Structure formats: structure tokens, C-alpha cells
């Protein structure tokens, strides 16, 4: 941290002059500062800036007193510069710090960087843009680059006169200069954090609309900017933005604070979106929608756009004190986005989607390598690593739980009070809890601290003592199922929300003890966490799980108990929760996998898209772990999937009707995809027929947009030829809309022959694919055993250049590591990963690496424990012939594909050997303190164990030179 208490910035006056010939820029920064203590030196943040001159001037002095810095020292590790002055800078006046410098217009997708795109007429367009969150403003100008050091900003850009210049505020003046240049000065911003400043220079089209709300007597102008020719595809997002601005103005009772709001689709952009105040940046895919875009895409874009607009108040107007409170502002933006989208689109059943979405963070949070929601961070690499699912989705989930506990109206009233109290300033988590406690007159800090300061979450285990009494016990839940006594000391205040067959309205009981005895009729169904607002798992006795399942199979009863969770019924969100808890419990060893497979039979007549989407995800999780098991076993599992989803396809058909509910279309696409994945011959044949017609003449009636991904995937999964693969590559090259490009790129990984897998890796790393899209191309390679082996070999052989090129984009590195190793299920691979990274400097990605290794360990244990259990269930239920597998083995024979020659290798694993390997890799055993809860320090696991320095090598020189020649940057 660079902040000096003796120096406080008041206002930045910044001038930026890009020099496109050598990818540099000239900068001059006038910073009005207040000096609280006399000093000879001033330290502030700067990275990759070459300081030319620095002068301090007393701008209130009639004599114009000034002093020039005699030296500038650079601290590369701390990312700071220190200016030393020969005279004392005294207290009692206002100084202007004038710094002239040269910086880089880089290709790293952060700081001030360059991008390029080609329009529909094959004309190349250059643009420059910024991405400052979290600590990259220092790459563009010297500053105190911390969220609590707020100031106002005036910005001037010098650019070619035919380019569009954008920043946070409206243009104040525009002057045409010589040589075809322009000087654009923007109005002064309100007080704000450095990471929210932004500017862009380039060729854009735009569409616009006005809000009905007013700012200084005028409606707020909302514009959507996009690459040339694409702006019309932003109409959906623009209309939504106008509604969201009006909604949040009413919700917070605070008008939108700026005179305009721009939403910009940026061709190269690392995060999905960024809430720069008044100038929100998005990936093109996250903002633009084809005119016939699917309902899934509408929901996806709505959640993103509303999330970023909520930040214009909660995050920008009121800002976190330090990055340790990132969760509060990201979690609240996510939670608020769901509230608004649910209100704007009540037919979407958005809260069922929320329940489905938080399953990934529940899975992540059940590993020892997770971290508390409130987590201490100090340096940029630590800060970047907490932009994860825990900060965003666990944060949102515990806030939803708080909303259910308090009541949404009371929560929102408390938020309004919080916003009014801290607007234009900074606040932390405790400030919010105290404000809510005062407003609601309940102990909010006591309830929430344990949820935000302790790592992990509980599982409630239910024991039926007799037909009218149950014992509820809470324990720490770990995906590996091996909770130690010293770990199982945590307690959470758990809102039980208990509903029964006789009393379906949830009872609001808060359990803050290890055990609790309740009176419940155990001869009928009962359910905890009704509404699925609680962030915990529930383990029912098999009989109760069966009773819940039986209730769902009675179609009349199902309809009656699935419409309205407000009345305590088992709506879609509750059914999703029932499924996900069951799946998590079998993966952790708290129940046999056969119990989840048995539960699925109760959902055969399910009609809700969200429920089926969750079923598909849990089946794919099972298939991923079992992927390299003997072919008869995998074919039997596919048959389970085929029977479930083919039934839906037969009911819905391939063609939509004019007045069809969008959810029906979503379900049709999902069912076709997963029935085709399972190899249903009729569906595969129909997909191939439609694919041939579509590729011949781009007949949209053959493959409408919502079926494009399923059909492309089915075709590539069921062929080893190159003709279909080449057709999709050409479709990618011809496509102009981001929707079309992402679909084509993502399905390439389903080509499963050795040749196609290698082609996908090569293509993904070529200049034809933007860096932000590489992960789309390689993610699906995990769907085959050979794809996993090839990805792992690729990463090992080319790690040094990958790290060198992307070390400043930790999100990219995190996901690349996750995709390359996260699916492994053998001890041999586990060892290989540990050995490979043992001599690398993993400090910038240690959390994700540790999470992957812990996840691999969980998968190994699951497979070892339940391999025979699954085979027996498949055999008993007629999916697997008796002679299909070898029952003579006495140890778990874990199979993996040798990446050197593609052959299968069998590895015998026992618990002692796995535990020894785990301890040797130092994972899950080195822990750091959680934040203090009730005066006590709780322990929290950290990423562990690797250090040393990485070496560098040369790779992809063709890509690097090609990317440089096109002035392009080579990813939640």
C-alpha cells in the first residue's frame, strides 16, 4: 500500500496523449494534494511509468513557489515511486504535484491497453481502453491507488479527430488540433476511487435512450457503444439499462449520480464486465445479443447488466474501505441484481436459477483450500485471487440468507439508511451490520459474523429418534468427507426454515448449538431449508429422502406442492436444493452414489427447466469422475442419461411454437443436448441431418439459435472425421456476432480424435482467437480422457511462455490451471501436478492450484469408495450386464491415460498412500487464522505449499509477432 497519512490527494487533472507508433503514451498528471505533516518525500503508486519530471507547487502562493524533485526512486515489488524534494513541503497550504511521464499502451488487458477488431467489411479498427480494477490505475498515471483514497478527476485526451473519445463524464469541450488531432476535455467527476476512472478511444457505433428519472432537471442519457456494425444488437441491453437505472434510483431513494451512463462492448476485455462509474465496460458477448437470441442468453445478459448498474450506487457512490471488503460490494451487487431481474421478469423464476448457480460455490467452499468471505489481503496478487466465487456468490448467498432471516423489506430499508449515511465515502462490512442492527433492532452482527469470518459451511445431519422426534446436528462439511475433530469445532447460527407435510409454512427456527431436538412427524415428509435461502447442506435419513421423492412423483400433488414457495411448498428451487444436497453428500462419502441415482427416478415426470438443468449438471459431475472407467460402465451411465432426456425430446419435439414459453425452449435444447450426448441414435441422426442442411446454406430453420450449440456438440462428439470440424471452424471465421463466435469456438473441444484435439489447442492459441476467448476453446477438451491428457501435456510443455505472457492476468492463469488439471481422478496425475509445480513460483495463483489439488483428491476418494457401488446399482437396475466388469479386484484400480502414448495405465490406490501424497504436497494442513469471531480466532486453510522461481522459455513466437503486428492483446 502506498498511502501516506501525511499526503492526501484532493483532485487529479490528467492529460493523456497516446503515441500509436510505438505503443506508448505521454502523460501529465496535476494532483492537488493536502500535506498533513511536513515531508521531504512523497510516495505514491506507479507501475511501468517512466517519470520525466516532478514538481511541487504551492498554488495558493502569490509568488508561485515551487520545488522540483531531485530524485525518483522505484520500488518494483511495492509498485511505488518516491519523489524526493530538496526543500521541506510544509503544512497549511494546498500543493499541486505536477508529474510528467511516459507509459505503455500494453497488450495485457489491464491498465491502459490496446485492442483491435475487424468489421463486417473486413476493415481493421484500432482502439485503446482501460481496465483499472483492482490495482492497475497505477499503470496509467501516478496515484494513490487504493479504494479509500478518493478524489475528483478531470481528464483530457488527445486523439485522432475521427475517433470517439469516452470517459466517466460527459465531454466538456472538444478542440480540433493540427495534423488531424483533437483534444477532448471531460467534465470533472464526483469524488471516487482510482479504480473507477476509465477512458476509451476508438471507432464505435452507438444507440441511445433516456431515463424518465431526472438529474439536474434533465433525463439521464444512456448510450450503448459497440464495434462498428454491432450497436443494433445492444438494444435489449440498452432497454434493460434504462429500466435498471430507474429501478435503483427508486430502490435506494437516490437519483443516479451522474449526467450520463455509457455501456460499451469492448472486443478484448479480461473480466466479463467492469462497473467504471458512468462508463461500464463489457465483453461483447456479455452485452450484445442476436435479434433471435435465446432466453438463456437474455437471462445471462440481464444478470450481468443489472449487476454492473447496481454498482453505480453500491460500490461507486459508497465504496469499500479496502479489498478485504470486496465480497460485500460484489455479493450485494449480485444479490440486488437477482432482486431486480426477478421484479422485471417475474416469469423467469430467477431464484431457482440462483439456487442452481450457488452450487458451484458450495462445492468450492467445501474444500479446505477455501477462504472466509471476509479475507485479509495486502498485495496485488492476493487481491486478484479473491475475485472468485466465494467473494461473489457465497457473498450473495449469505446476503440472501440474511434477507430471508430479516425479511427483504427490512433489509432494503436498512440498505437505504446505509447508503445515505456513507454516500460519497467508504464503508466496511461492520458498518453495514451495525446500520442494519440499528434499523431492524436485531443482532445482525452476531448472526452474520460467523458466516463471513469463518471458512466453510455446515451440514445438518438428521437422526430420527422415534416417530415424532428428530435430532439435528451441525458439522463442518468437507467435500472430501474426512473432517478431523480439531476442524469440527465451528458453529454457525443456522436458519432452519423447517416445513412438514402437515405444516408446509416454514418455521423460523435459528439453530446456534451443536445439536437440537425437534418434534416432527417422521412418518411423513419434512424438509429443512425451505426456499433454499440457507447456505448449508442437509443430510436426511434414507426413509425421509424416499418420502420426499414419493411426494414428487404424484403429479397432482407435485403441481400443488411446486407452485409457490411463499406458501411453504416444494417449488423448483426446493427441488433443485434436494437434488444438489443429495449429490454433494454422495461425492463426499456421506451417502452412497447409488442413493443419488435412485433419487433421480422421482424426477422422471419433472417439467421445470431449472430442475432438469441441475440434474444434467450433477450427472456430468458424476460422468467426469467416472470418465476413464471401463467402457461398459460408461455406456451404462449414458443409458441412464439417455432414458431421462430422450423422454423429454419425444414430448417437446424439435420445433418451437409461436406462443411457446421461453422455458420450454430452454428445456428442449437441454434435452436434445444431453440425449444426444448419451448417444440416442434418433437424436444423433436428426442432429447430423440438420447440421448438413445448415452448413450448406445457413438455413436458420434447420438449426435455430437455441439449438445451435446442442447440434454442433452432438455432431462433433459422434464423428472422428475432419469435415464437420472444418465446417465449424469456417463458421467461426465467418461469424460476426459474438454469440455465433462463442458457440463455434466452444464446441471445438468436443472433437475427440487425437488430430482434432491437437488442432483445437493450436487454434485456440493462434491469433485468430482473442486471449479472452482461449478458455472457451479449451474448456470442452476435458470431455474426453485423451483431451485431458493432451491439455496437461500442453500446459507442462508451454507453461513458461504462458506464465510470462499472462502473469498480469491472474484470472486467465487461474482458469487455465483449473481447466488443465481440475478433472484428474488418479493418484499418478495428482503426483505429477505436485511435482510439476514444486519448483514454480505459485504465489500469484496458489489458491486455485491448492483448490485443484484438493478437488483431485476428493475425486480420487469418491471413485475409490463408490466405483463398485455404482456398478452394482447399474447391474441391479438393468443397465449393466453381469459380465461387463471385472469384480475380482480388491483395491481401487484407478485408470488414467498416459499422455506420452495415449495408453491406459492402472494405478492401485489406498487411503494411506493418498494421505501421504497429500501431506507431502502440504495441502489442507497449513492453516491461517480466520478473522476474529466473538473475540476468538478461528483457523482457516490457505493455499499451500509451493515456492521458488519459475523459468522462462519461448513458445508461440508466431502468435506473439502476429498479435503485435495487428496491435492486439492476445477471460468473473
From TrEMBL:
* Residues that, per the record, bind Zn(2+): 307, 311, 330
Q: Name one GO molecular function term.
A: zinc ion binding
| Metal-binding recorded as keyword | yes
Q: Which Gene Ontology cellular-component terms appear in the entry?
A: cytoplasm; extracellular space; membrane
GO BP of this protein: peptide catabolic process; proteolysis
Q: How are cofactors bound according to the entry's free-text note?
A: Binds 1 zinc ion per subunit.
InterPro entries, per this entry? Answer: Aminopeptidase_N-like_N (IPR045357), Aminopeptidase_N-like_N_sf (IPR042097), ERAP1-like_C_dom (IPR024571), M1_APN-typ (IPR034016), Peptidase_M1 (IPR001930), Peptidase_M1_aminopeptidases (IPR050344), Peptidase_M1_dom (IPR014782), Peptidase_M4/M1_CTD_sf (IPR027268)
Give EC number(s), comma-separated: 3.4.11.-
Give, as one word, the top-level EC class: hydrolase
Bias class Low complexity marks the residues at 938-950
| Domain Aminopeptidase N-like N-terminal as annotated: residue spans | 9-196
What Pfam families does the entry give? ERAP1_C (PF11838), Peptidase_M1 (PF01433), Peptidase_M1_N (PF17900)
Domain named Peptidase M1 membrane alanine aminopeptidase: residues: 236-451
Where is region (Disordered) located? 920-950
Task: Provide the cofactor list for this protein.
Answer: Zn(2+)
Superkingdom to which the source organism belongs: Eukaryota
Q: Which UniProt keywords apply?
A: Aminopeptidase, Hydrolase, Metal-binding, Metalloprotease, Protease, Zinc
Q: Where is this site: Transition state stabilizer?
A: 392
Keyword match Ligase: no
Question: Which stretches does UniProt call biased (Basic and acidic residues)?
Answer: 925-937
* Domain named ERAP1-like C-terminal: residues: 525-857
Active site: residue positions: 308 (proton acceptor)
Family affiliation: Belongs to the peptidase M1 family.
Q: What is this protein called?
A: Aminopeptidase
Source organism (scientific name):
Mortierella polycephala
> Gene name, please?
APE2_2
Amino acid at each position: 500500500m502506498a498511502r501516506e497519512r501525511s499526503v492526501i490527494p484532493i483532485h487529479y487533472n490528467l492529460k493523456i496523449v497516446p503515441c500509436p507508433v510505438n505503443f506508448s503514451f505521454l502523460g501529465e498528471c496535476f494532483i492537488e494534494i493536502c500535506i498533513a505533516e511536513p515531508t521531504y518525500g512523497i510516495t505514491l503508486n506507479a507501475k511501468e511509468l517512466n517519470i520525466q519530471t516532478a514538481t511541487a507547487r504551492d498554488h495558493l502562493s502569490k509568488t508561485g513557489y515551487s520545488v522540483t524533485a531531485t530524485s525518483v526512486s522505484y520500488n518494483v515489488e511495492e509498485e511505488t515511486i518516491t519523489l524526493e524534494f530538496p526543500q521541506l513541503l510544509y503544512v497549511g497550504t494546498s500543493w499541486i504535484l505536477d508529474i510528467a511521464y511516459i507509459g505503455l499502451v500494453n497488450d495485457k488487458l489491464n491498465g491502459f491497453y490496446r485492442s483491435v477488431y475487424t468489421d463486417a467489411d473486413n476493415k481493421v479498427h484500432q482502439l485503446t481502453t482501460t481496465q483499472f480494477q483492482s490495482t492497475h490505475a497505477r499503470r496509467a498515471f501516478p496515484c494513490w491507488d487504493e479504494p479509500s483514497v478518493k478524489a475528483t478527476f478531470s481528464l483530457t485526451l488527445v486523439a485522432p479527430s475521427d475517433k470517439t473519445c469516452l470517459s466517466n463524464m460527459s465531454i466538456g469541450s472538444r478542440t480540433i488540433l493540427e495534423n488531424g488531432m483533437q483534444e477532448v476535455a471531460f467534465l470533472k467527476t464526483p469524488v471516487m476511487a482510482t479504480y473507477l476512472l476509465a477512458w476509451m478511444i476508438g471507432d464505435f457505433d452507438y444507440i441511445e435512450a433516456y431515463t424518465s428519472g431526472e438529474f439536474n432537471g434533465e433525463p439521464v442519457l444512456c448510450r450503448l457503444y459497440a464495434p462498428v456494425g454491432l450497436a443494433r444488437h445492444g438494444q435489449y441491453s440498452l432497454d434493460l439499462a434504462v429500466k435498471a437505472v430507474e429501478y435503483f434510483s427508486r430502490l435506494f431513494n437516490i437519483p443516479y449520480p451522474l449526467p450520463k451512463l455509457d455501456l460499451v462492448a469492448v472486443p478484448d476485455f479480461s473480466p466479463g464486465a467492469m462497473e467504471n462509474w458512468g462508463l461500464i465496460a463489457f465483453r461483447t458477448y456479455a452485452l450484445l445479443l442476436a435479434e433471435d437470441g435465446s432466453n438463456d442468453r437474455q437471462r445471462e445478459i440481464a444478470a450481468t447488466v443489472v449487476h454492473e448498474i447496481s454498482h453505480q450506487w453500491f460500490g461507486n457512490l459508497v465504496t469499500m474501505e479496502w479489498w478485504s471488503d470486496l465480497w460485500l460490494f460484489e455479493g450485494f451487487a449480485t444479490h440486488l441484481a437477482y432482486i431486480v431481474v426477478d421484479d422485471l421478469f417475474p416469469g423467469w423464476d430467477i431464484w431457482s436459477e440462483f439456487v442452481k448457480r450457488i452450487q458451484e460455490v458450495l462445492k468450492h467452499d467445501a474444500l479446505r483450500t477455501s477462504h472466509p468471505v471476509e479475507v485479509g489481503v495486502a498485495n496485488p496478487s492476493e487481491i486478484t485471487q479473491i475475485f472468485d466465487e466465494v467473494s461473489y456468490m457465497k457473498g450473495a448467498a449469505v446476503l440472501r440468507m440474511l434477507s430471508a432471516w430479516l425479511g427483504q423489506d427490512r433489509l432494503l430499508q436498512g440498505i437505504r439508511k446505509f447508503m445515505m449515511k456513507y454516500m460519497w465515502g467508504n464503508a466496511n462490512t461492520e458498518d453495514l451490520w451495525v446500520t442494519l442492527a440499528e434499523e431492524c433492532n436485531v443482532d445482525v452482527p452476531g448472526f452474520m459474523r460467523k458466516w463471513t469470518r469463518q471458512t466453510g459451511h455446515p451440514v445438518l445431519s438428521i437422526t430420527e429418534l422415534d416417530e415424532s422426534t428428530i435430532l439435528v446436528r451441525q458439522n463442518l462439511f468437507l467435500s472430501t468427507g474426512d473432517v478431523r475433530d480439531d476442524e469440527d469445532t465451528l458453529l454457525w447460527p443456522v436458519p432452519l426454515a423447517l416445513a412438514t407435510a402437515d405444516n408446509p409454512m416454514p418455521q423460523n427456527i435459528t439453530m446456534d448449538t451443536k445439536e437440537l431436538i425437534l418434534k416432527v412427524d417422521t412418518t411423513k415428509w419434512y424438509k429443512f431449508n425451505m426456499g433454499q435461502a440457507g447456505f448449508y447442506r442437509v443430510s436426511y435419513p434414507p426413509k425421509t429422502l424416499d418420502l420426499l421423492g414419493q411426494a414428487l412423483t404424484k403429479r397432482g400433488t407435485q403441481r400443488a406442492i411446486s407452485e409457490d414457495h411463499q406458501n411453504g411448498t416444494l417449488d423448483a428451487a426446493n427441488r433443485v436444493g434436494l437434488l444438489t444436497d443429495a449429490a454433494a453428500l454422495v461425492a463426499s462419502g456421506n451417502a452412497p452414489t447409488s442413493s443419488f441415482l435412485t433419487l433421480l427416478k422421482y424426477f422422471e415426470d419433472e417439467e421445470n427447466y431449472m430442475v432438469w438443468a441441475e440434474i444434467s449438471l450433477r450427472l456430468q459431475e458424476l460422468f467426469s469422475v467416472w470418465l476413464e472407467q471401463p467402457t461398459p460402465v460408461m455406456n451404462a451411465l449414458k443409458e441412464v442419461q439417455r432414458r431421462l432426456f430422450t423422454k423429454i425430446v419425444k414430448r417437446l419435439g424439435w420445433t418451437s411454437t409461436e406462443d411457446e414459453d421461453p422455458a420450454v425452449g430452454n428445456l428442449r435444447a437441454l434435452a436434445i443436448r444431453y440425449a444426444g450426448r448419451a448417444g440416442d441414435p434418433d437424436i444423433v441422426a436428426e442432429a447430423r441431418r440438420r447440421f448438413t442442411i445448415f452448413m450448406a446454406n445457413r438455413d436458420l430453420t434447420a438449426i435455430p439459435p437455441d439449438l445451435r450449440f446442442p447440434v454442433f456438440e452432438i455432431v462433433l462428439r459422434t464423428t472422428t472425421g475432419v469435415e464437420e470440424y472444418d465446417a465449424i471452424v469456417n463458421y467461426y471465421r465467418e461469424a460476426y456476432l459474438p454469440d455465433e463466435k462463442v458457440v463455434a469456438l466452444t464446441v471445438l473441444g468436443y472433437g475427440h480424435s487425437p488430430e482434432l484435439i491437437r488442432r483445437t489447442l493450436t487454434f485456440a492459441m493462434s491469433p485468430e482467437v482473442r486471449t479472452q476467448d482461449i478458455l472457451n476453446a479449451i474448456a470442452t477438451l476435458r470431455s474426453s480422457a485423451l483431451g485431458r491428457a493432451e491439455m496437461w501435456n500442453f500446459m507442462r510443455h508451454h507453461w513458461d511462455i504462458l506464465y510470462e505472457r499472462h502473469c498480469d492476468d491472474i484470472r486467465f492463469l487461474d482458469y487455465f490451471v483449473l481447466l488443465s488439471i481440475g478433472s484428474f481422478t488418479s493418484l499418478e496425475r495428482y503426483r505429477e501436478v505436485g511435482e510439476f509445480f514444486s519448483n514454480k513460483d505459485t504465489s500469484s495463483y496458489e489458491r486455485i492450484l491448492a483448490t485443484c489439488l484438493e478437488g483431485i483428491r476428493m475425486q480420487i476418494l469418491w471413485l475409490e469408495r463408490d466405483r463398485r457401488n455404482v456398478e452394482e446399482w447399474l447391474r441391479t437396475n438393468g443397465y449393466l450386464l453381469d459380465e461387463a466388469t471385472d469384480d475380482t479386484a480388491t483395491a481401487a484400480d484407478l485408470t488414467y491415460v498416459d499422455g506420452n502414448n495415449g495408453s491406459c495405465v492402472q494405478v492401485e490406490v489406498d487411503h494411506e498412500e493418498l494421505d501421504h501424497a497429500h501431506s507431502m504436497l502440504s495441502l489442507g494442513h497449513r492453516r491461517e487464522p480466520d478473522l476474529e469471531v466473538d473475540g476468538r480466532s478461528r483457523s482457516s486453510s490457505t493455499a499451500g505449499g509451493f515456492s521458488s522461481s519459475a523459468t522462462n522459455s519461448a513458445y508461440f513466437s508466431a502468435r506473439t509477432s502476429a498479435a503485435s503486428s495487428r496491435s492486439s492483446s492476445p477471460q468473473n
